[in-house]
Amino acid sequence: MLLDTASLYFRAFFGIPEKITAPDGTPVNAVRGLLDFIARLVTDYRPDQLLACLDADWRPAFRVELLPSYKEHRLADAATGAETVPPTLAAQVPIIVEVLDALGIAHVGVPGFEADDVIGTLAVAHTGPVDVVTGDRDLFQLVNDDREVRILYTARGVGKHEVVDESVVTAKYGIPGSAYAAFATLRGDPSDGLPGVAGVGDKTAATLINRFDDIENLVAAAHDPGSDLSPTVRRKLLDADDYLRVAGDVVAVRTDVPIPDIDFALPGAPADRLVLDALTERWGLGGSMNRVLSALTAQDQAGEPA
């Protein structure tokens, strides 16, 4: 099980009141929410391996060089490249990392890459079933029934998440799962600063991808006067030519990230109980911590996952 950790703690932060605080008044809604999410996911799915994937670089240079608008609207400071994050959430991220360490839950972020790229690399490399937990549709491109890679999509909440496989992608968008990145490139995504092709929505994008398979073939057809593209669609594609020639490499999740050699095994007991107890007391994690520990203990006693 691969966690898109920022997706989860952002959801916890905005979904749980900030009045959930530590004894000293510090908000810990994101910390407690993430712990509750992990407890529920471990209980429901019984993974034998779990990795919290982190954004070591939320706006990688290789994507920005190709498409300067990539996540540009989220910049808090153009000079430093810092992301706009509520201060009361930013203060909780180091606590989350400390708690994961004390629990013994593996986490990793790789300099120069987003969590999506870490997830993509591990999902492709792993030989067994993989569940990716995220609220980000971009990761639908990883869905692969043959390799048993699916998405636990949390857009409506972890408790109401949707299990997304290739049939779900096809039912939602009318395309094969493997074509989702090309589909997203055409449609665009304002939340990531991807303009898409003006005038091309979901239905047109799906029609074009099903006809031409990928962006490269579609661009070639737009430049071919003999192709059977309508004049209107051809003009839209040609107007977006510069974007289309680079956007595919921006949208595509990388699968070649150098992942450090770490143990992803789900712990049956905390890595450091003394530190964990101190963190639990200091930050008032009580019930949330108990639920995680109960889930880990139950998983350890259950042995091999079903």
From TrEMBL:
InterPro entries associated with the record: 5-3_exonucl_a-hlix_arch_N, 5-3_exonuclease, 5-3_exonuclease_C_sf, DNA_polI_H3TH, FEN, HhH2, PIN-like_dom_sf
SMART domains registered for this protein in UniProt: 53EXOc, HhH2
Highest taxon of source: Bacteria
Keywords for the protein's UniProt record, in alphabetical order: DNA-binding, Exonuclease, Hydrolase, Nuclease
Domain 5'-3' exonuclease: 1-267
One Gene Ontology molecular-function label: DNA binding
GO biological process: DNA replication, Okazaki fragment processing
Protein task: 5'-3' exonuclease acting preferentially on double-stranded DNA.
PANTHER family the record matches: 5'-3' EXONUCLEASE FAMILY PROTEIN, FLAP ENDONUCLEASE XNI
Protein name: 5'-3' exonuclease
Taxonomy of the source species: Bacteria, Bacillati, Actinomycetota, Actinomycetes, Jiangellales
